Amino acid sequence: MSSLLVVGSVAFDTIHNHLGSHDRVIGGSATYASLAASQLADVRLVGVVGQDFPREAVEMLRSRGIDTSGLEVAIGETFHWEGRYSDDLTSRETIQTDLNVFADFNPKIPASFQDSEFVMLGNIAPQLQLHVLDQVQRPKLVIADTMNLWIDTALDALKELLTRIDILVINEEEARQLTGYHHPLAVAEALRAMGPETVIVKRGEYGALLFLEEDIFCAPAYPLKAVADPTGAGDSFAGGFLGYLAENGHTDLRQAVICGSAAASFCVQDVGVGALAELTREHLKKRIRDFRELTCF
Ligand code: AMP
Description:
By secondary structure, this protein is an alpha/beta fold. Helix content is about 35%, strand content about 25%.
């Protein structure tokens, strides 16, 4: 299997939604992305947790084949994010972000990870994402995620990052904020002019749009009867997307988008990482086949 380096947050999340309150469940961008890719690639995780992070959670990641030797345990408490969803789950507000040990996170890529073929830069400060790129040798493909916080507070570093990555994965709202445009083609053209050859705009329950040169591909979100928790859907999408490219040697980006959408659809069916922790390659492949049925005409 190809090697896939994932760098990002590993967290406790407190989630308030239509099902109630879920206190300090395991989350974080790197956790979701690693789990989503774990059945497709040799995932190498780099992140930081505090001494309060449960050993069983690390064991769960290891049991999925994820190499956690780059998961630093620092003195202090684990990053904690708390958010509340609207009843229809279409929007959320951040109630609290306790950076804790994440405040001093300075990702160190272990020597044994520096030859990683595929790199996923999860949502962390763009300066840190750049620092990761300075430590890896010659990856075949680098994808990055970002968020409004960094557009507001670290725009110069973010712009530099965009010149050094192959694929940007970004929420529609944040893509509009970053470019100042509203309509999809204008947004994509402006983002590609900033550096990345390929841009993927995530549209939540409406799926994702892929832009590569003249090619545009539109993937729906998989229709579900119920959603338990959308947290981590975007990170799971990115993990499934890059996992597919790692497994298949970077070929068909459209197939990869569908694999990302399949991973995200499993993610939202349970609270936290519950569904991803049980996900098999067969489940993913079956859902990719269902996507084909769903969209073929
Ligand atoms: P998503 O729903 O895909 O946007 O990702 C949700 C995950 O992002 C949660 O598990 C949080 O722990 C994590 N998260 C929230 N805020 C931040 C932040 N400022 N930096 C890094 N990760 C974050």
